[in-house]
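Bug report (template v2)

What were you trying to do?
Predict the complex of my protein with manganese (II) ion.

What happened?
Run completed; filing so the output is reviewed.

Input:
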Amino acid sequence: MPSYHLVSRKYRKEDTVIRLATTEVGGGSTVIIAGPCAVEDRELMLQLAPLLKNMGVDVLRGGAFKPRTSPYSFQGLGEEGLQILNEAGRAAGLPVVTELMDARDLDIVYRYTDIIQIGSRNMQNFTLLREVGQTDKPVLLKRGLSATIEEWLLAAEYILAEGNQQVILCERGIRTFETYTRNTLDIGALAAAKHLSHLPVIADPSHATGRRELVAPAAKAAVAAGADGLIIEVHPKPKEAKSDGSQSLLPEELAVLIKEVKALASNIKK
Ligand code: PEP
Ligand code: MN
């Protein structure tokens, strides 16, 4: 059975480096993507973005279309959220990443973002993968909640097969029997993806753990295992966050973590 091909190290030996205006992913440094789970409020984003830039964040995140388990939970601000994210990113000199949930929103998401995120729940939405594969924007592809490593790489293959070679893989924890943590960070899968593929691989310690106090240790473990970067949720008032407050770091906690991660990364040979 033909499996993944274009994403494999056999096809391409050198690491793929994804270049953005102010940073790159996969080029040896540890890229830090951070921001709130969802774009909630213009003032909050405009204040937070320069703070993040100053502490060494490379890319601003924020969801405008949120894949919530309950239809009654906050679903995101939609196009207004995209505009706010874009405005905050531009003002602070940060590229931005946001999730695309539906191919019908591709045009507006494309217009406002620098990286298109495909969330876990859509990892095997093959129509959506094909659509982003036909664009020229980098794609951040989260591993599905219960996806095997091969299924994850084959999802990336869909995007590459359409012509878009700029895919960043993201290990964000998988469903296991454990319930204390929101998911289980699969460090082995992160290392395997680095070994099997030339694509950059980052980790999401926020969704992987679901608990603020576990985000830093999980982030450090991922970097020690060779991650090319991290995507971390941060909120100035986590208790008031409209989504994922319990796993969101305070800005000052993120600043400490970034220093620790950079120190750690400088001692890891990639
Ligand atoms: C997110 O990044 O906000 C998100 C919904 O992530 P995931 O798709 O990994 O659950
Ligand atoms: Mn979230």
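What did the reviewer find?
The beta strands are 18-19, 24-25, 31-35, 59-61, 96-99, 115-118, 139-142, 167-171, 201-203, 229-233. The first strand starts at residue 18 and ends at 19.
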